[in-house]
Write a structure and sequence with these properties.
With 275 residues, the protein is α/β, with parallel strands linked by helices. It is built from ten helices and seven strands. It folds into two domains: 72 residues, no CATH class; 173 residues, Nitrogenase molybdenum iron protein domain (Rossmann fold, 3-Layer(aba) Sandwich). 45% of the residues lie in helices and 10% in strands. The strands form two sheets. Strands 2-1-3-4 form a four-stranded parallel beta sheet, sandwiched between helices. α2 packs antiparallel against α8.
Length: 275
């Protein structure tokens, strides 16, 4: 796909490396550590939350991810084993921005474990409303035949795909951990400060790379980059159709669209092929 490659400016790769490694919605699971009874069990909804909790909690926490990698938070239902595991969780770090799994399951989860401390990771973040086009693309990405409750002009749930938001998420997780485990406050603070420094560095590098970008439009597979675009004065154009990988003809049309609009950045999602 040499023709396609020509229209993906090198800056896209730089941004993806900086962002996806730190805050992608598809963080790969890391090797399990030797667990001890002293570890605090923390439940999260999706993998990005697990990354944030692990960065702050380090070897003091064991993390339960409710929606496993590859599953859709729009349709996933927890297994009986997961519900049993939640009985032992001392904290739940929910996304808090309108992820459908949480809208449908959080009340049941908190009823199951009334002693569990719930942290709203969206606290302090200014939530943005999805545009009409983004909402349509979000709906198209759902399983066919499934019914979902949405408010008109609903909030964009993808708060983790922004270094600025990620820093607030990390702060919220830190505050939750020191509330349930104050004895290790210094340990958590050291980890938190170190990770925020990484996010600050990524933010600075992205801002620098985008500084002189004239065309502020970017092509994305799924309209999940709204907060990222807000931070860096960009406009996302979604190309995903019904949650499916673009066809060869679709990619050719995208190249044509990119040429006509002089778009030089394409953000890919790990679950889609870039060949």
């Amino acid at each position: 796909m040499d023709q396609k490659t020509k229209f993906v400016w090198a800056i896209g790769l730089v941004i993806l490396i900086a962002v996806l490694v730190l805050i992608s919605g598809c963080v790969e699971e890391k090797p399990k550590q030797n667990l001890t009874q002293e570890k605090i069990i923390v439940a999260v909804t999706i993998s990005p939350q697990a990354e944030f909790v692990e960065k702050v909690g380090g070897d003091k926490v064991k993390i339960i991810v409710m929606v496993p990698p590859g599953a859709s938070p729009h349709t996933y239902e927890p297994t009986p084993n997961q519900m049993v595991d939640l009985n032992n969780a001392k904290m739940y770090a929910k996304v808090g921005s309108g992820v459908e799994f949480e809208l449908g399951w959080m009340d049941k989860i908190t009823d199951l474990n009334k002693n569990m401390h719930v942290v709203d990771c969206s606290k302090g973040i200014e939530l943005r409303k999805m545009t009409e086009e983004e909402e349509k693309a979000e709906e198209d990405g759902h399983e066919s035949g499934e019914e979902h409750e949405h408010e008109e002009g609903g909030n964009d749930p993808h708060i983790w795909l922004s270094p600025k938001n990620a820093k607030m998420i990390v702060e919220n997780i830190y505050n939750g951990l020191i509330e349930i485990d104050p004895d290790n406050k210094d340990y958590y603070k050291t980890n938190k400060d170190s990770y925020i420094a990484e996010l600050d560095k990524a933010d600075g590098e992205i801002s620098k790379k985008l500084l002189n970008l004239k065309n502020r439009k970017i092509l994305v597979f799924h309209p999940s980059w709204g907060y990222f675009c807000r931070d860096y004065n960009l406009t996302q154009i979604a190309i995903e159709k019904s949650g499916k990988e673009p066809t060869l003809q679709g990619i050719e049309n995208l190249i044509k669209q990119a040429k006509e609009n002089n778009i030089t950045i394409i953000f890919t999602s790990p679950q889609f092929s870039t060949k």
